[in-house]
Design a protein that fits this description.
The chain is α/β, with parallel strands linked by helices. Helix content is about 25%, strand content about 25%. The chain has a single domain, classed as 2-Layer Sandwich (BirA Bifunctional Protein, domain 2). The strands form 2 sheets. Strands 1, 2, 6, 7, 8, 9, 10, 11 and 12 form a 9-stranded mixed beta sheet that branches. Helix 2 packs across helix 3. The longest helix is centred in the middle third of the chain and has 19 residues. The C terminus is likely disordered.
């Protein structure tokens, strides 16, 4: 498993990260690249998933990036950890098991490493503290390989993050962050246990591979 860690290389544009994940996905689907976790932090951006409704966009002047992941509209930006598990799943693919494994890794991380009382809510994706959403999960599977993934609010600015939209199209709940819940930490400190939890949760679901390699962190030049 490769860990491609871009957290220390500055804010990225969402489109650049989307291009990178699609390139990796194509190689992983063909068996030409090891399963990978892509970690990054973006400039402020809004992405609309396949289930976005027009009334989820409060401010029609916002620049919206259309995506092919599940879910509605959301925000990505400073203070939010984004992690894309890009892996080849064993056939026949069980989509529900994959979703639960990804959610479970976030639950494991926040419960075990940060002592937050997080949970799932029946009928709603993501990870919650009461009716406050702390992590969104938006996924896609193509050619038995995965795209998109997790956004986890670590120390986002509550005054500006998610403004102008109905986050995830949910009108009867709010969003929160680890900082708002009293946890003073960094994206890198959250990424380490998250990667470990993802590896453990996803291992039983992965297709056999002939590409070997231990988990390692890749820091690109520049």
């Amino acid at each position: 498993m490769h860990v491609i860690d871009l957290l220390d290389t500055g804010l990225k544009t969402y489109t650049a990260m989307d291009e990178m994940q699609r390139d990796l996905h194509a190689k992983i689907a063909r068996g030409e690249h090891p399963n990978s976790f892509l970690l990054f932090e973006t400039e402020s951006s809004y992405t609309a998933g396949r289930h976005t409704r027009s009334d989820d966009i409060i401010d029609p002047t916002l620049p919206i990036i259309e995506t092919d992941r599940a879910g509605s509209i959301t925000w990505h930006g400073p203070g939010q950890l984004v992690c894309y598990p890009l892996v080849k799943l064993a056939a026949p693919v069980d989509v529900i098991k994959y979703i639960r494994a990804v959610e479970g890794a976030v639950l494991d991380t926040l419960q075990n490493s940060f002592n937050l009382d997080v949970r799932r809510i029946e009928g709603r994706a993501g990870v919650w503290i009461d009716n406050r959403k702390i992590s969104a999960i938006g996924l896609k599977i193509s050619q038995d390989a995965t795209l998109h993934g997790i956004s986890l609010n670590v120390n986002t600015d509550p005054a500006t993050a998610f403004s102008g939209i109905v986050p995830c199209g949910i009108t009867d709940a709010t969003v929160t962050s680890m900082a708002e819940e009293g946890i003073d930490t960094t994206l890198g400190a959250v990424a380490a246990p998250l990667v470990a939890a993802l590896e453990q949760r996803l291992e039983p679901l992965l297709a056999p591979t002939t590409i070997e390699g231990d988990v390692h962190v890749y820091h690109p030049a520049g």
